[in-house]
Structure formats: structure tokens, C-alpha cells
Amino acid sequence: MRDITENNINRDLNYDEPITMDTVLSRERKAIPGRFEGKAAVVTGGTSGIGLSIVEELLKEGCKVGFTGRNEKTGQTAIDHLEGMGLSGFIFIQADMHKEEDCHKAVDKTYEAFGRIDYLVNNAFPFTNAARDFTTEEWMESFEGGLLAYARMMSFVSPYMIEVGGGAIVNVSSISGHIAQGSWIYNSMKGGVGMLSKSAAMDFARDNIRVNLMSPAHVWTRQTMRHFLKDGQSNEEARNFVKFNTKGYMLNRGGEPVECAAATLFLLSDDASYITGSEFMVDGGFIACGSQGSFDLIDVRKREYNIDPPIKPNFHEKG
Questions:
Q1: DSSP state for residue 125 in the 8-state scheme
Q2: Residues facing residue 98 across a β-bridge
């Protein structure tokens, strides 16, 4: 008899074969041709991962894109990737979002290249995983390159959006803005992105500029995959790492950059014309599970994915 779990696209597809980038990243989306024709966007941190996927999908739908990155070599790799796909209508701007002058440069260079700016995607954001042993430098690194950079970019890009009658902004945040994970700095800064975005949405509403958040959970990118692609690691170790990063998710897996891009493009598009000051959770159901989710999902995994769970704690047993 055919195993009914084979019909579930979120089952454990990649655990019985060698774990590689290709087995983890497998999803594609169907572009909507011409949806952003005649428009132009700025995407920060667009040389890899979620940012590069957003750039790629925007270009497929006719948008002109100026995207930033700090590293020239990584930027050239992104250029080669996009050109290899036959995509055009973009410029790479080497810029460090910690620097106010580079934020100006990203906006101005995009406007000079395309004569307009309709969209902004704030994606570049430092990851600083520090708790009580933090340094002032670590706080300032995250603040200046993350929260303050987001604010600067929105402020600097708004006159160009007003010039064309309005626009849309998507700030990439995280589930880390909603739950405590032990990182004083990253969690605090991502929480700040939420309130910054809502405040900006209120301020820009009169200018016909919408501001929303796209907040992922665990997403497989070059950064997150480095843990199981490193030399000398066995496939069993890689498999265990991938499995560990599916815990607590209704959909039983980590996300992919293209899924974040799809949500971002929707929020930028006219289909989201009555959506502002809102947050789209691209998290596989993680936040909805709540603190009980990791236990309840044991039953879900057994029932829906045919995975044998460990022994479930009995919270109703009398001690």
C-alpha cells in the first residue's frame, strides 16, 4: 500500500539520503511576469540568502533593483549568479549599512541608475548573539547596522517614493522579535524593528507609502547551512542538525529563502494595497505553536509524518 505520508510535501524528504545544499533547498515559485514592470527597488543585504532571493524574484517580475553588500567578492558572486540566470536591470552597490554615508549612497545610486524608487526592502542586519557578557561595541554594532540603518534607509528613500506618488517598504524582522532566545542584543533589536515599522507606517500613511514586516523563523541559507556543509562532518551529523532545526515547526522543516521572497513580493505589490503596519510571519507555524508546541508536535509528527517520537512526558501524572 502506498504510504499516505508521501503526499505531504512537508514530510522528512531529505533524511535518508546525503544531506547537501540541494536536498535542503528544493522549492521554486512561479513568477508573475510584469508585476513590477517600470518600478525600481532598493534591497539591502542582497548578495546572499534571503536578500539575494528577493532580488532574484523582483527581477523576474520586471523590477529594476539596486542591491547592497559589504563584500565586493560576494557582490560579484551574486552578479554572476543573476547574469547566469539571464536576469538584468540591476546594480550592485558596495555599502556598509553601519555608515550613514553608505545608506545615502545605496539610495542615491539606485535613483541615478533607474530614475525612480518605488520599493525598499531592509534586509541587512548584524547577528550578534550575546547575553550578560555583552560589550558596548556589540550593542552599537547591532544598533547602527540594524535598527538605525533600517530607520535611515526609510527616511532617505521616502522623498523618492513621494516623487512617484507613493511606495512600499518591507522590513525583514524575525521570530526573534517575539520570543526570548537568550540573546539580549539580537532579540532586542528585532523587537525594535517591529515598533519602528509600525511607527513608520503611521508616519508615511499620508504619503501613500506602506510599511510592513516579513518575519522568518529558521531559514536555510549559506550562513545557516555552514554547520552541516563543513569538511569532515558525517552525513549522520548533518542529518541530526537538519532534524534539530525542524523541532517546533508545524510544517516539520526549516524554511527556504524563496518562501521569504514570495511573502516580501506580495507585501510590496498592489495586491497588498490595504495592508500597512502589519507583520507576516513566515515561520512554518512556529509562533502559533507557543511554548506547548514542542510537546504537542510529537503527536503531530507521529500521526502526520509517521515519525517515531521519544517518550512524551505525562503532565497529568501525579508525583
A1: -
A2: none
> Is 274 in the active site?
no
DSSP 142: H
The model carries a pTM of 0.87
Chain position carrying cell 547592497: 68
Axis crossing angle, helix 257-268 with helix 49-60, rounded to the nearest 10 = 50
Write the pLDDT tens digit of every residue in 185-219. Answer: 999 999 999 999 999 999 999 999 999 999 999 89
Q: Are 277 and 197 in contact (CB under 8 A)?
A: yes
Pick the catalytic residue from 119, 150, 186, 249.
186
Long-range contacts of 196-203 (CB under 8 A, 24+ apart): 196/147, 196/150, 196/151, 196/171, 197/169, 197/171, 197/173, 197/277, 197/279, 198/277, 200/151, 200/154, 200/169, 201/276, 201/277, 202/277
User: Any bridge partners for residue 40, and if so which?
Assistant: 64
Domain ranges of the chain: 32-240+252-287
Type of residue numbered 1? M
The tens digit of pLDDT for each residue in 113-163 reads: 999 999 999 999 999 888 999 999 999 999 999 999 999 999 999 999 999
User: d(Cα 39, Cα 117) in Å, to the nearest integer?
Assistant: 7
The predicted-structure confidence for 249-287, as pLDDT tens digits, reads as follows 888 788 999 999 999 999 999 999 999 999 999 999 989
- Give 32-240+252-287's CATH code, choosing from 3.90.380.10, 3.40.50.720, 3.40.190.10, 3.40.50.1440: 3.40.50.720
d(CA 27, CA 220): 12
The residue to which cell 494595497 is assigned: 273
The answer to whether 43 touches 86, Cβ cutoff 8 Å, is no
Helix, strand, coil proportions of the chain in percent (round to 5)?
50, 10, 40
Rounded to whole angstroms, what are the CA distances from 47 to 16, 55, 78, 80, 227?
A: 32, 9, 5, 11, 20
